[in-house]
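input
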Amino acid sequence: MAEDSKNGTPSGEIAVPGATSAPTPVGTAADYLDIKAEPQRATLTIKGAVAQSGITLTRDDVAKKLQGLLVVEGVDWAAVDRMLIGKQYDRGQIIAQGLPAKASRDASIQEKIKIDTDLVPVVGKDGKADYKNVDNIHQVKKGDVLAVKTPAVQGTEGKDIFGKPLPAQPAKDIQFKMGANTKVSDDGLNLVALVGGYVYHQSGAICVGVTYVLKGDVDFHTGNLHYQGDIQVLGNVTEGFSVEAEGDITVEGTVEGSEVISRGGSVTIKSGVFGHGHGRIAGKTSVRVLGAQDVKLECEEGLVEVEKGIRNCQVIAREFKADKPNCSVVGGDIRAYGDVTIAVLGGEGCHTNIRIVDKAAEAAKARIKEIEHLKGEIAPKLAPIETRLKGMKVMMAKYGATMSERSKAEVKGVADAYVALKNAEKSLDAEKERLHSIMMAAPKHVGKFAVTEKIVWGGILEVYGHHRELEEADAKLEWIWAPSGLSSRSLLPEAPAAPVASSEKAGASAVKTDPDAKTPDAKKNPAPPNQAAALPPA
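output
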């Protein structure tokens, strides 16, 4: 059919004025759908020309296009519908996404306590930093958890938009590195301390040490040492610093103007101790020093032992020994509850005081002093309260029936304070009486004193209340308490008896067997002074 050149309608057809006809579709739906498909996503762009094409795009058209591209996973049909209905042309949008694999989580280990030291100083309430007390030893008890393990978690598989599996990266496991004195719990999730001690790292492992060993000096590079176990210092303890432990303490070097204190064990100082008037060495079971000067040596429940000598020291011990050859004690005070043995006592111009005392009586005496002081504080508090109570009694007798509740409460408060002070005074009096009975009880006189070599200058000896000014002649004697005073016996071995002739032996035999033989009169033949005959049996 020929086309009319004027109106563009086929020849033979009549064009109706004002009427429109449907456009003829141009191409296919797929021509207007541009989809870029990658393994993890697909992007759809609807070409704007479709609006003039006479083609109405549908979800099925998109589905066929995706099928042709082999996209089978993760299609977002809601997004497709929004693009089609909203006629969102010429703008690429994601309509399909792959499902990524869920990542695995590797096992991890977390330390539960601080291990490495940083020497951070302690800051006091006043804001001042104390560079002697620093963060230097981290301690644990047996059974403490040192580190915990979080187990590995394996990830889950994913898929790309073409349906291809995306495997998860395998999770990595990790194991505890077991150091000294540690173990792993049965479930494998905790690292536990087998013993009490301090923690440290070694080759990546957490370890628990028992004896804390310091290879250098105790000074500002280390700070004071406070530890629950044993301590060994390979260097010196410098002035103003302290070493404290519940166990044994050994110092290879010197100690100057410092405190070395073991609350539950022994203290051994292998070089000199110089207190400068304020040093203190104290132990629970024993204190052993090479030599010491101007320092306090304390071991009330054990032994204080000196190898070379001490000068101007204050010693408190159950037993004191300075009996190595030429070991000297010059000046100072020695107080013991048991034996005191010294090789060389005194030096020119120096007197040494030695006291052997009853520990219970000494403690009672000290406590009585404290009680007297406390009672002295109560008396001035009682006096004004008693005066006030007397005035209140007069007021109550006169106005008792009309007194306000506030006045009654005030009277009660004053009366209660008075009763509390009187009860405290009564309690102190009862304690004082008990302590007096302890002091009056017969002590166990077990302590002995001896100078094994010589007395150079002298000293004052007190044994359970009996005094003696020591002289050179008192050396090589052992002194003990006796009811009548101090008694002594020689430390020298007895000389062997001289050989006896046969006739003398016969005569002696006759004396022993003679029933009429008289016992020598002890009063006519007294034992020489300072001899064992003056002592009760040892």
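quick obs: The first helix runs from residue 59 to 68.
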